[in-house]
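User: Predict the complex with zinc ion.
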Amino acid sequence: MTGAGGGVRLPFTPESCPRCGEPVSGPPGTPCGRPECTVGAALDELRRRRRRRVLRGTERLRAEGIDPDAVTWSPTPYQPAPQIPVSDEHREELRARLETLVAAARAGGGEPEGASEPDEAEGRLPGPRFRGSGPVFAAACRACGGLCCREGLTRGAFLTVATLRRVRGDEGRGMDAGGLVDLYLAHLGPTHARSSCLFHGERGCRLPRELRSDTCNEWICTELKDLFLDTGGGDGVPPGHVFVAMSKDGRQVGGVARYEPPPEVSSRAKAASKAEDEAGKSTART
Ligand code: SF4
Ligand code: SF4
Ligand SMILES: [Zn+2]
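Assistant: Here is the predicted structure with zinc ion placed in the model:
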């Protein structure tokens, strides 16, 4: 765009660095090039995000009729994808993938290319291997809605030869290859979360836990890993703790879920096991 004098008009009028006040060109809030200003501006933005997250989370709790001063709460990731129909193309892709895996499982072969578990080094699904998706983490995943399940679309629900061997030796005992493939396809619903795994329904994963891949049963995101480490594996999370799903910048806020401890039973181990089973029936990643 040209100005009255024929010169090129800058897209933004000159601003000043928010840290040192030196003139800069760029959108408001852009720091000058000094390292101390760049770092300082980044820290300011982090503080702003944190404040926004606290504010928006508190508002969300109030909207649910929860007094934010009467509970402890923490954020989880957020996945706002709407449900869309499972397309014939996606269904057939999954069928073909399952047929390949089942054939390899029956032939005693290894993982076909592309069917391996996600590589942590790829940074796509960060998180530790984690066995212990107890009720605390079930509540967190329920609020989140399954952000990590997005990788499941292109990775065939993370199913592997190893998982199918396990299933064949259990629920799929005696099933032929077609039966095993049909067992999985029967759990597809009419819809799935957009850009996410085909089994990602409106209330979470449509696959029973025993049919899910080892990856789905064992991985958690970095947010839950931090929670796990900070709370002694979840033991430090008080009953009634509320999880609020929100984007990292706090601009989008989603589901809310409360951690309710399992009923007391004769032994802690028995209680933990029962809660895990219950959680597995109703939540996204748990
Ligand atoms: S592990 Fe749970 S909280 Fe983390 S992204 Fe997956 S569903 Fe969300
Ligand atoms: S937990 Fe379920 S919805 Fe999520 S990636 Fe695994 S199979 Fe898909
Ligand atoms: Zn500056």
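The chain has two domains: 19-69, 76-282.
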